[in-house]
Amino acid sequence: xxxxxxxxxxxxxxxxxxxxxxxxxxxxxxxxxxxxxxxxxxxxxxxxxxxxxxxxxxxxxxxxxxxxxxxxxxxxxxxxxxxxxxxxxxxxxxxxxxxxxxxxxxxxxxxxxxxxxxxxxxxxxxxxxxxxxxxxxxxxxxxxxxxxxxxxxxxxxxxxxxxxxxxxxxxxxxxxxxxxxxxxxxxxxxxxxxxxxxxxxxxxxxxxxxxxxxxxxxxxxxxxxxxxxxxxxxxxxxxxxxxxxxxxxxxxxxxxxxxxxxxxxxxxx
Length: 269
Ligand code: HEM
Prior knowledge:
The chain is an all-alpha fold. The chain contains twelve helices and two strands, in the order ββαααααααααααα. The protein has two domains: 9-227, CATH 1.10.630.10; 230-269, no CATH class. It starts with 15 loop residues before the first strand and ends in a 21-residue tail after the last helix. Bound molecules: protoporphyrin IX containing FE (HEM). The site of protoporphyrin IX containing FE has 10 residues, from helix 11.
């Protein structure tokens, strides 16, 4: 097979229309490696390992709420939890924290907010189906003047745009720098490549690329571990208990910072 340096045509289905009705190329949608490199350069540092580790502190806040909610709603009540949905709400809220410094609030609400879980599922289904017919998608959704006239902004893009508009209120100077602050800095530094409209696109890519994927992986890990016949569940459980013991006995150096994690209410057998 000849390598062309271009991703396949199905990636047009990943293109969004901007609020100004322009087709936007983004990290995930562009087929062209040169465009990809140009789009990636200004935000490369935002996805670098050192900065990803910094986002962990932002995640911890959501992990804390996740455990609190599971404890009060299900453990304390002896009720069954739909863990698949809760893990997706957790993933969504984590993306909110690391991208906008704002937990979207799925966990506290205990339900879908603004139909985002529904929209994400529909979006993924659309990519899977129309990815097989990218020419049809390109013609009807992106290029056709009639479709463009009545075009509705993608719900994930609109949701991201709204949170960007409120970002200044969310930012806590004491907390690690989030993705939007890094994207905004890139607009200043690379004005020829980055525009404020593109910040919306980068943020929407995080929301759509990061929430469903993370939820699926978490579900899979938990499912596999719980159903493991080789005793790995016990091994993992002991490892977690070891961590919790170390944390509650103040031996924090062995693990990342755990202040703020809601482990104090957990009983270690
Ligand atoms: C376990 C969870 C995840 C999995 C399995 C996953 C998987 C992937 C895959 C396979 C791609 C390449 C897609 C393609 O080119 O067709 C990708 C790209 C991407 N993902 Fe993830 N992802 C995960 C989590 C995340 C998270 C949490 C974020 C955001 C915070 C994120 C943001 C992105 C972005 C921005 C791209 C485009 C990168 C580029 O092309 O330069 N992903 N992901």
